[in-house]
Specification:
single chain; 200 residues; mainly alpha
Length: 200
């Protein structure tokens, strides 16, 4: 084992660093695996593999005596050798695709946001409430929504926005079902953060 460790240190200095297959075990363990693969005598190769497993287990002393974890260590040993280490494994080795299964691609919604400064949430929200007669008759709630749109616009553009633009957008995004225009509605004043910093 000391011979292997010394060889690992020497090879680490002499060779270009390769990407680690399982970084949690470190480069020395990876180098030991590569050395074990070069040992021609099978019995010696088996002894070397068991020594490597002991070193791997020492990294997780609270788990090393667990049978399931032991199986996992041998799986990882096989994985670090790209399943090319020819030894007598005490467990049936788990296929690579089961050790590190390829995650399924997350489907992206095919949805175009009509106004990026409001975001998808506001777009979807307005579409939903446009079909709710109870909300459409609640002017105070609609004003709250308009104020939120104004805040979103200001955050995205960092500029003062006229209330008429917000009310026009609300009317357009709701397909004409929400109309707060020409009702003398005053939305909340939102101070521009950029302007405030310049004043200081």
């Amino acid at each position: 084992m000391l011979k292997i460790c010394s060889y690992v240190i020497m090879s680490k200095k002499q060779t270009k660093m390769k990407e680690l297959i399982l970084p949690e075990y470190g480069r020395n363990i990876q180098n030991m695996v590569e050395i074990a693969m070069k040992i021609e005598d099978r019995n010696e190769r088996n002894r070397c593999a068991r020594s490597i497993i002991n070193c791997m287990g020492n990294l997780f002393p609270y788990l090393r005596d667990n049978d399931a974890f032991q199986h996992k260590l041998w799986d990882h040993l096989a994985l670090m050798s790209n399943f090319e280490l020819d030894i007598d494994y005490p467990f049936a080795i788990t296929p690579a695709e089961e050790i590190h299964p390829t995650p399924e691609a997350i489907p992206l919604p095919d949805y175009q946001i009509r106004e990026r400064h409001y975001g998808r949430f506001i777009d979807n929200f307005i579409e939903r409430i446009s079909n709710d007669s109870t909300i459409l008759t609640n002017q105070q709630l609609l004003i709250v929504i308009a104020n939120f749109m104004k805040r979103c616009y200001n955050t995205y553009n960092q500029e003062v926005i006229n209330d008429e633009i917000i009310l026009d957008d609300l009317h357009r995004l709701s397909n004409g079902k929400i109309d707060l225009r020409n009702k003398n509605i005053k939305l909340q004043d939102i101070q521009n953060k950029k302007n405030n910093k310049n004043k200081k």
